[in-house]
Amino acid sequence: MLTIALPKGALLKDSIRSLKAVGLDFSGFLDSNNRQLQMLDESGRARGLLVRALDVPVYVEYGQAQLGIVGYDVLREKHPNVAQVADLGFGGCRLSVAVKASSPYRSPLDLPIHGRVASKFVTCARDYFRSLDLPVEIVPLYGSVELGPITGMSEAIVDLVSTGRTLKENGLIEIEVLFESTARLVAHPLSYRLNHDGLEEIVDRLRSRCNPVGVS
Amino acid sequence: MLTIALPKGALLKDSIRSLKAVGLDFSGFLDSNNRQLQMLDESGRARGLLVRALDVPVYVEYGQAQLGIVGYDVLREKHPNVAQVADLGFGGCRLSVAVKASSPYRSPLDLPIHGRVASKFVTCARDYFRSLDLPVEIVPLYGSVELGPITGMSEAIVDLVSTGRTLKENGLIEIEVLFESTARLVAHPLSYRLNHDGLEEIVDRLRSRCNPVGVS
């Protein structure tokens, strides 16, 4: 049976809506009383797994799920061995460099050499500053990255921005966008190639509702 | 001014109680309406930072906080460069290997060679299985690790257990304890050595309420 890994959190509602539009109903996961992490779709054709966004590509990479929905930011940070088969269009945000509005920095190249940059996106931040040939120390944080500049621990942060409200509330401003992110449909490469469980048909139907990757 | 990093989540209430007993009151962080991540103690002598448990040792290592409270499990997993100065005694739990109750495995050495072990504690899990000379693949997960054996992705998990309720609800049993964990008081090594901001006095008073590390 086809298994689809769905991300908890911000992308869940739109993920469920997209799947519903192609005939797979996992809306039970949205029920506030739901404690189940696995659920059959109402037609009994597919199984949904409700996991942390960062875990979606793990389940797909190991073939425990043949399909998954996850933000492009996660794919860029973790480089999982999964096939990115469609841009689902929703969940738009961007990975940006931000600094204190009161700082003198208005571009990443203004940052001091060997300065510090706090981020949950350690790989993306490191790759980006390497591409600038600017040696900085990346400070790995797991939450509330905006505290980095506020406490003086770091000169800048690299973090996801959607509305920009968190930055504003904390006196920070964006000075550069690393990349834009949206929700992506990913597939287990071998299952997709062998078209297990009618995978291709579901991918095609989800794709026709949105943009195939590269054509967006 | 002395800054103390406090962990969000399970250890927060007892952390605040411990500090209150030595005259530092951060109970404002427990107010359900609180959105502040920084707060002065009522006497104005110290500042509290409310951060993710995994971030506590980062703030202390970088000297942004001179003291922090964090679970021993985080110290074992991340090996931060901080001084562990007291065992605060609360927050007891253990890092354990667990498998499906219906599986044939009753000891880690029963696990198949090149089997899979899902864990949030990748370093601890890898070190432990290396010490057994049992080659396994560690699958890094961020949440709901119990899904590993349930979905068949892994034969076992390495995860924190406190009451054991989550394991039981998911049909899993503990087959080995890697180590026991409690909340620890950690200090920025140089600040502690130089006794910045009367650090030693506060550490001594917290210690006298509980057990210095190594004497517990």
Automatic annotation (TrEMBL), chains A, B:
Q: State its Enzyme Commission number(s).
A: 2.4.2.17
Pathway this chain belongs to: Amino-acid biosynthesis; L-histidine biosynthesis; L-histidine from 5-phospho-alpha-D-ribose 1-diphosphate: step 1/9
Catalytic reaction list: 1-(5-phospho-beta-D-ribosyl)-ATP + diphosphate = 5-phospho-alpha-D-ribose 1-diphosphate + ATP
Q: Name one GO molecular function term.
A: ATP phosphoribosyltransferase activity
User: The organism sits in which domain of life?
Assistant: Bacteria
Describe, as the record does, how this protein assembles with itself and its partners. Answer: Heteromultimer composed of HisG and HisZ subunits.
What UniProt notes about the protein's domains is: Lacks the C-terminal regulatory region which is replaced by HisZ.
Q: Which HAMAP family match?
A: HisG_Short (MF_01018)
Give the family per the record: Belongs to the ATP phosphoribosyltransferase family. Short subfamily.
User: By what name is this protein known?
Assistant: ATP phosphoribosyltransferase
Organism, by scientific name, is Phormidium yuhuli AB48
Name of the gene this protein is made from: hisG
